[in-house]
Amino acid sequence: MPAPRTYRAEALVLKNAPFGEAGLMVTLHSREWGKLRVVANGARKANSRLVGHLEPLTLTRLLLARGRTLDTVVQAEVAGTFPNLRAGLAAMTRAQFVTELVDGFGSEDSPNEPLYELAVDTLSVLERDPNRDLTLRHFELHLLQVSGFMPELFHCVECRRSIEPDRHRYSVDSGGTLCLDCRPAGAQVSPLSLRALKVLRFLHRSRIDELPDLQTSPAVSREVTALLAASTQHWLGREIRSNSFLKVLERSGEAGVFS
Ligand SMILES: [Zn+2]
Questions:
Q1: Residue 124 belongs to domain with CATH number
Q2: What is the pLDDT of residues 165-198, one digit of tens each?
Q3: C-alpha distances out from residue 207 to 81, 113, 119, 134, 139, Å
Q4: Most buried among 102, 131, 187, 252, by the most CB within 10 A?
């Protein structure tokens, strides 16, 4: 029996771009199919009803038709929006950081429902409290987990012994904590403070919608931020563009310490 010509998807719109004369190329992460790049023909025409359902940061229910190279949008219906994330530069920048990483880590070849749920949960928490960087750190660590790159936080990645307090370092490319005795050839090794390790373990075991305020120093916040940024960039294999916008926010005093 031939595959059905149409299929349904529940998806988060990550970005869109003009395509052809009046169409849109829409990049989505769907619950059912993973990442999708689909075309909405005629969406940029003045009388089109499609475009409002395909804006970035929209949750949408879609009916899609299989095409020879690209699938097309037959119907789209908004299932949820995040108005506070569009309301200011700081909130928008954090939301774009989330969508950029979901775009980067999502795969067009395999569904990843945990990644879809992580993205929606993170945006929902940011929608209620858009100025909290701890939400983004939680997102990065759990993004690594649902993508199969969860860093080791309890044992030495080389000799497998339990990590003892204050006797640890961190290696992005070896995949997590190292004891002081191990130094794998060629590995990038950085210092890791006990407080930063505790923050990482805390983020790992916490739910994103129940994160309390953490009384950490700016130095520990910076250490955790830098370590997670290095880990996501390493596994993604390229710079994360929205990181530079987040740094601008940090310098302007709108971001920084975990509170
Ligand atoms: Zn070791």
A1: 1.20.1440.120
A2: 999 999 999 999 999 999 999 999 999 999 999 9
A3: 22, 17, 13, 12, 10
A4: 102
